[in-house]
Amino acid sequence: MLMTLQSNKIYGYLLMQKLAACMLVLRYIQYLQKVQAKGNLTSNRLTNIQTQNNRLQTISSFAYTHDKVGNRLSKEEPDKRQDYYYDRIYRLLQSLPTKIKNKGKDKENEQKEENYSYDPTGNRLFGPKPIEFYSYNRGNQLTNDKKH
Fold first, then answer.
1. Which of 12, 63, 82, 90 could staple 75 via S-S, CB 3.0–4.6 A?
2. Is 126 within 8 Å of 146 (Cβ atoms)?
3. DSSP for 103-120?
4. d(Cα 94, Cα 86) in Å, to the nearest integer?
5. What pLDDT sits at residue 40?
6. Could you tell me if 56 and 71 are in contact, meaning their C-beta atoms sit under 8 angstroms apart?
7. For residue 55, what pLDDT is reported?
8. Are 71 and 87 in contact (CB under 8 A)?
9. Across 50-64, 80-94, 104-118, least confident range
């Protein structure tokens, strides 16, 4: 009994030390970075997110656009843009990356585009890469996932 009580005290002490260390790390991260997120209040959609260091220099920045039903149409970073295309029933068909050079003046398509296709029921058959394909049984249950 004495051994269990002593080990519980040691365990509790170690747990408190870990918790204190985690809190210190979180405070340090908060000191180093400032994250700002902006959105459209009427639609509850994220439109911008920006991370800055303690000198207010931007570390990362993303801007998003959406269609009327909330599908993402684009994601833009300082050096690249990702455009998304959907079919008439809002299924993702293509994601097309574009590199932006010289502050948006020159653009070139990357070779990392993603394409998707679906069966008449709406199950994904291919995508995002051509070698990733899926098959389903009569109950629309996934039977083959070539990705995994």
1. 82
2. no
3. TTTEEEE-S--EE-EE-T
4. 7
5. 62
6. no
7. 77
8. no
9. 104-118
Amino acid (one-letter) located at 72 = R
Q: Which two tokens stand for residue 126?
A: 């291919």
Cα separation of 109 and 89, whole Å? 26
**39 pLDDT more than 50:** yes
Mean pLDDT of the chain: 76
Handedness of CA 62, 64, 70, 73 (dihedral sign): negative
**What pLDDT is stored for residue 98 in this prediction?**
86
Amino acid type, 71: N
Tokens of 44: 């509850």
Token pair in block for residue 112: 């990392």
Q: Report angle CA 92, 95, 98 to the nearest 5 degrees.
A: 160
Structure tokens at 53: 């260091």
The two structure tokens encoding residue 138 = 């009569």
3-state SS, residue 72: strand
Count the Cβ atoms, other than its own, within 10 Å of residue 72. 17
Q: What are phi and psi of 42, to 5 degrees?
A: -75, -30
